[in-house]
């Protein structure tokens, strides 16, 4: 299994392929990969993302069968069952990168803002359970001048919600805490832009991984992931 930094860079390269309209040969070989995966899987990254139909992680990162362990829930919130899913993948498969993936104009974040501005008792208890997990991040922002700037409020709230979920995974699970401290597990937060298709890894990225190879040539971008970047 690859380490967290290599996994992060593999996602970055895959996202560059997606943005530029390229696909790796390895991703396209689904029939061959399916047969090889019958006996087991070794996903190189765990993605906790939003259920929004416009943000499918495998496509956004140009990955194929068996590459990503994807957990999707509206608002990329963290609840016990979702923490358990991350724990399972990290412990069972040795996956060392967890990405909390939010996205611009998140509907669940907008619904939370609306609920705080205009409380409604008609909201279902199930939707309320999602809103209540996003609420703390949004409430802090609504106590600032951002409450008068709707677009900026949503933008900042999306990122605050990603940070809160990532922080919950880092500090809300004894299993994950142990893997972070002793076995190289890395939890980062990212935002996908609906407008550009780009993913910005903005939370929890260590200094050693801050610098990334920019402006890759088409040949480098289209190189199958297992062959590296050289």
The SSE order reads: HHHEHEHEHHHHEEH
Shape verdict: globular
Stretches where pLDDT is under 50 for at least 5 consecutive residues are 224-230
Largest sheet: 5 strands, mixed
- Radius of gyration in whole Å, from Cα? 18 Å
**Total number of helices:** 10
Q: Structural class, please? A: alpha/beta
The counted number of beta strands is: 5
Mean pLDDT comes to 90
The end-to-end distance, rounded to whole angstroms, is 20 Å
Approximately how much helix is present in the residues?
A: 40-55%
Strand content: 5-15%
Oligomer: single chain
Give an overview of the whole structure.
The protein is of the alpha/beta class and 230 residues long. The chain is 48% helix and 13% strand. The protein has ten helices and five strands; from the N terminus they run αααβαβαβααααββα. The chain has helices at 4-20, 25-28, 30-36, 57-60, 80-93, 107-117, 125-142, 150-171, 174-182, 218-221; strands at residues 45-49, 68-72, 97-103, 186-192, 199-203. It has a five-stranded mixed β-sheet. β1, α4 (57-60) and β2 (68-72) form a beta-alpha-beta unit. α6 (107-117) crosses α7 (125-142) and α7 crosses α8 (150-171). The longest helix is centred in the C-terminal third of the chain and has 22 residues, at 150-171. It is globular and about 50 Å long. The relative contact order is 0.18. The model is unreliable at 224-230 (pLDDT under 50).
């Amino acid at each position: 299994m690859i380490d967290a930094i290599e996994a992060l860079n593999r996602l970055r390269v895959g996202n560059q392929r997606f943005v530029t309209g390229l696909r790796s040969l390895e991703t396209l070989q689904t029939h061959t990969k399916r047969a090889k995966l019958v006996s087991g899987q070794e996903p190189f990254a765990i993605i906790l993302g939003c259920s929004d139909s416009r943000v499918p992680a495998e496509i956004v990162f140009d990955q194929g069968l068996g590459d990503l362990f994807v957990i999707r829930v509206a608002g990329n919130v963290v609840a016990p069952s979702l923490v358990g899913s991350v724990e399972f993948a990290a412990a069972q498969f040795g996956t060392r990168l967890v990405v909390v993936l939010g996205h611009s104009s998140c509907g669940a974040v907008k619904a939370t803002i609306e609920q705080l501005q205009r409380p409604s008792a008609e909201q279902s208890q199930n939707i309320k359970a999602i809103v209540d997990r996003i609420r703390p991040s949004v409430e802090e922002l609504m106590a600032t001048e951002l409450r008068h700037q709707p677009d900026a409020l949503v933008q900042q709230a999306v990122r605050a919600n990603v940070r809160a979920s990532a922080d919950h995974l880092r500090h809300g699970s004894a299993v994950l805490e142990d893997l972070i401290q002793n076995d190289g597990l890395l939890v980062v937060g990212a935002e996908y832009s609906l407008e550009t298709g780009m993913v910005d890894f903005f939370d929890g990225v260590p200094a050693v991984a801050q610098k990334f190879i920019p402006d890759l040539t088409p040949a480098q971008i289209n190189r199958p992931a297992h062959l590296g970047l050289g």
